[in-house]
């Protein structure tokens, strides 16, 4: 009797748990359905004249070709910012205005006259060639929400609901899996107990009970085996020595150091995409010990007229790096006291304090001109792929071993006019064999140490 009951109860447990899992799964599926099926019907209605009419991609092309000269999306230019302009005016009115704004103003339309006066009676071009559906496309583009910065995504998305729903489904799936595991364990225990009882009731001896006293636990066996202990001890000692050595050797080595700078300045954009030469900004690298960081005047040579990055660059910054590039340029203006509206310096300066990245200890002497001009070494050999760095970081370890290795391995550039005489003499002495920097004295302590 008891056996049967027990057997049944574990089966029942199993069935009940299966039922639970499936009902939870279908419940969560239903939740998903209601959010993706029921709700959107409402917002779509509400934004018909904003979101759904027209093709934003085609609109973007039309906007760039016809309107971008005078209009920006989020900022006043020659004309007003056009973001969500379709919500400020009637659609019919917009068709008329865009096709021929002068005619609409001449007709005395109060809305048109007001805008015209607000913008100092400057004229917008007429676009009779645009059809109503072209205009719908443009408006679909101007209604598109700006990309959200990735850095803030976690917070914003939860509010917006986009990331939240996928996160909750993830959580639900994880929860269900955990539940299934727990249930399996419980079921196994139940089955085990049932079987044991079944065996006992039938007078069968289970093996485990007999074996138990003879078995020693693994840890005891281990403690008794001296050879194993010796091997383990040696292994542990070696491993910790390895890590301690690594830790000591990395003291003072700042490879990969990439501090947050006061202005998010991208070498990728300037030295990479825009292909500005390193020496345009780091002009002293060729003649002197230091490369130096450019003064902000150098930046303003270009940035007096570049107040904003292109829309594509802007979107890339927001999506891939979580940076609002235009805000960073505003920081440059704040630092130099440049007033965009008046196109003049106000005199209120606040110098930018760049955080120094590469820094040898005072006991070592390193000279840029010697390497860049005399040695003819590319900046990238030591500083890495700078033109790909969104944020500058220390690429090389800058240890003594690093300097010495290169001096041992690098052959002297014998075509170099700078030391021509010396090189010639030396190479004759060595019977024409290639000279390394070490042969020049590049391993002498005094050359690098004061
Ligand atoms: C030559 C410059 C110029 C071009 C090109 C231009 N606009 Fe305009 N736009 C203006 C100006 C200036 C105003 C402000 C009213 C005025 O002074 O006429 C304006 C106003 C507007 C308005 C009213 C905005 C509001 O906030 O009320 C809309 C809509 C508009 N333009 C759409 C367009 C579209 C769409 C295009 C491209 C197909 C375009 N504009 C091309 C200069 C231009
Ligand atoms: C438009 C100006 C500009 C150009 C072009 C430029 N840089 Fe820079 N560079 C800067 C500024 C500003 C900083 C300081 C901010 C930073 O560290 O990101 C800097 C920092 C650096 C640093 C780190 C300095 C430190 O603190 O240790 C290195 C190395 C460097 N640049 C190398 C290069 C190389 C190599 C190139 C050419 C591929 C290059 N730069 C092109 C402006 C420029
Ligand atoms: C030779 C011209 C030139 C010089 C010099 C220059 N920039 Fe730029 N900068 C640009 C251009 C072009 C862009 C925008 C690229 C785009 O729209 O894709 C830009 C974009 C930027 C941005 C936004 C993207 C980013 O890097 O975060 C900042 C900030 C910026 N510059 C700061 C500086 C600073 C600081 C200096 C001086 C050290 C400087 N720029 C010197 C041409 C220049
Ligand atoms: C042989 C390796 C090597 C080469 C090549 C090299 N650098 Fe450096 N750079 C260094 C070292 C090492 C430091 C750290 C110097 C110090 O702390 O005194 C440094 C520091 C800098 C700094 C920080 C400011 C300073 O001068 O201390 C800038 C900026 C810089 N380098 C730019 C450049 C540019 C641009 C080039 C190419 C024209 C270049 N470097 C080529 C090794 C190199
Ligand atoms: C990428 C290879 C490279 C690295 C890394 C490098 N050097 Fe050099 N170094 C050279 C070359 C090439 C020359 C020879 C220039 C010439 O022809 O005079 C040189 C020359 C020198 C000299 C002059 C030697 C002499 O006899 O006149 C000194 C000092 C020096 N380097 C210091 C350093 C220090 C300090 C470091 C590390 C922080 C370093 N170098 C890292 C390649 C390198
Ligand atoms: C090619 C250049 C170069 C030569 C040659 C050179 N050193 Fe160095 N040395 C360095 C640099 C760079 C550092 C700093 C490295 C660091 O911070 O990790 C350094 C660090 C040291 C340090 C460690 C100081 C500390 O605080 O950690 C000692 C000691 C030292 N050097 C001794 C010597 C002696 C002795 C010789 C001659 C046999 C020599 N060096 C030759 C470049 C050189």
From TrEMBL:
Residues 54-146 form the Cytochrome c domain. The chain crosses the membrane at residues 172-191, 227-248. Residues 1-29 form the signal peptide. It holds the Pfam family Cytochrom_C. Keywords: Heme, Iron, Membrane, Metal-binding, Signal, Transmembrane, Transmembrane helix. One of its GO terms (molecular function) is metal ion binding. It comes from the Bacteria. PANTHER family: CYTOCHROME C7-LIKE DOMAIN-CONTAINING PROTEIN (PTHR39425:SF1), LIPOPROTEIN CYTOCHROME C (PTHR39425). This is Molybdopterin oxidoreductase subunit, predicted. It comes from Nonlabens marinus S1-08. The lineage of its organism: Bacteria, Pseudomonadati, Bacteroidota, Flavobacteriia, Flavobacteriales.
